[in-house]
Amino acid sequence: MPLWVDVFIVVASVAIVVQMGILLGMYLQVRTIVPLVTKTIADVTAKSDDLKAKLDPILVRSSRILENSEARINSVIEDVADMSARVRVQAVRADNLLGDVSDRLQLQVMRVDELASGVISMVEDAGARMSGPVKASVNEASAVMSGIRAGLDSLRGRRRTRGANPDEELFI
């Protein structure tokens, strides 16, 4: 038998022995881990059962509350939808009313402006028409008053001249 076959057999035998050692080590590790994993699974199962026992009443209550409240919640939702529709209708009405009031107010303001403009132009026309006769009357009254004043002054002046000396009468 050739040498390389002997070497191959030795190497294969050593590899098989090494593999057997590795498998034996793994087997021993698994034997020590299995009880720990079993204990951990039992603990997790017990804790999950405790948690389930605590959560079941809460879930049952929550389910009852939701079942009992479903009709109320639907009623509230319907009421809110109805109120929303009514508010929308009222908002449209208010908008229309405000628009109408605004239009009417604008029309009234225009009428008042036209009326005020008409009154002002009538007063100006009347003033222009009356200014001539009134000025003439005022001038006549002023002339009459001047005449009366002059007459009164002359009467006063004569009375003074009666008691005054003749030289004062000649003085101008």
Protein described:
Helix content is 97%, strand content 0%. It has two helices and no strands. The radius of gyration is 63 Å and the shape is rod-shaped. It starts with a helix and ends with a helix. The relative contact order is 0.02. The mean pLDDT is 86.
Residues in helix, %: over 70%
Total number of helices: 2
Which structural class do the helices and strands define? mainly alpha
Strand content: under 5%
Rounded mean pLDDT score: 86
Low-confidence stretches: none
Secondary-structure element pattern, one letter each: HH
Tell me the number of structural domains: 1
Approximate shape: rod-shaped
Say how many strands there are: 0
Task: Give the C-alpha Rg.
Answer: 63 Å
**Distance between the amino and carboxyl termini:** 185 Å
Summarize the main sheet.
none
Summarize the structure.
The chain is mainly alpha-helical. It has 2 helices and no strands. The protein has one domain (3-157).
Helix and strand topology:
Layout: H1 3-163, H2 166-170
Q: Which structural traits does this protein have?
A:
single chain; 172 residues
